[in-house]
Amino acid sequence: MIHFLKLKVEHLTQVLEWRTQADVTRFMNTDIEKDFDKQKEWFNRVSISETDKYWIIEIKGVLVGLISLNDIDTVNKRASWGYYIGEEKYRIYGGIIPTYFYNYIFSKYGFHKITAAVMGGNDNVVKLNLMHGYRLVGVYKDHIFKNGSFFDMNLLELLKDDWLKAGKFKKNICEFEE
């Protein structure tokens, strides 16, 4: 039902559409222009990056969003990550998608932990992360200046052992293209 497709050039128009939607970008650290040339430049950088990986989220054959693994640190066995669902009617899957991702990255990459930074005001995502076993490790006050206002940044971490101990989503395994 859920697949994760390696981000490819043919996905860029769709990703740009999602990424510039007001309801998606409102909780992103940055806003971007709807500029396909800049989108291609971004893709060219991330597609050769040793520290970033991007996948398109596909549900029941429909491309619905983007998920990424960032700041991959193989020495310290950690990374950060983020995702968004661009297709509104598929946002009901937003709580289950990360569980497939955690199972994959903890087994594939052998990370000790993953971290997340969630913009202030995005309370549902903070609650979701806490439900998945994250702990809130701090808050950067007034960390992001966007649309004329400052926003806090909630910092969270999930240890592999805590994820595995919880075990409630261990059956959530699916394919990730490499």
Give a quick set of tags describing it:
globular, single chain, alpha+beta, 29% helix, 178 residues, seven-stranded mixed β-sheet, 7 strands, Aminopeptidase
Q: Helix and strand string, N-terminal first?
A: EHHHEEEHEHEEH
User: Quick one: overall form?
Assistant: globular
Give the CATH H-level superfamily: Gcn5-related N-acetyltransferase (GNAT)
**Helix count, per DSSP?**
6
Strand content: 25-35%
The counted number of beta strands is 7
* Gross CATH architecture: 3-Layer(aba) Sandwich
CATH fold-level label: Aminopeptidase
Alpha-beta classification: alpha+beta
The helix fraction, in percent, is 25-40%
Mean pLDDT across all residues, rounded?
95
Q: Sketch the major β-sheet.
A: 7 strands, mixed
Calculate the terminal CA-CA distance, rounded to whole Å: 18 Å
Biggest sheet: strand arrangement: 1-2-3-4-5-7-6
**Any idea how many domains?**
1
Could you characterize the architecture of this molecule?
This protein is α+β, with helices and mostly antiparallel strands and 178 residues long. It has a single domain (2-166), classed as Gcn5-related N-acetyltransferase (GNAT) (Aminopeptidase), CATH 3.40.630.30. It is built from six helices and seven strands, in the order βαααβββαβαββα. The chain has helices at residues 12-19, 22-25, 36-47, 97-108, 123-131, 160-166; strands at 2-6, 53-59, 62-73, 78-85, 113-119, 135-146, 149-159. Strands 1-2-3-4-5-7-6 form a seven-stranded mixed sheet. Strand 4, helix 4 and strand 5 form a beta-alpha-beta unit. It starts with a strand and ends in a 12-residue tail after the last helix. The mean pLDDT is 95.
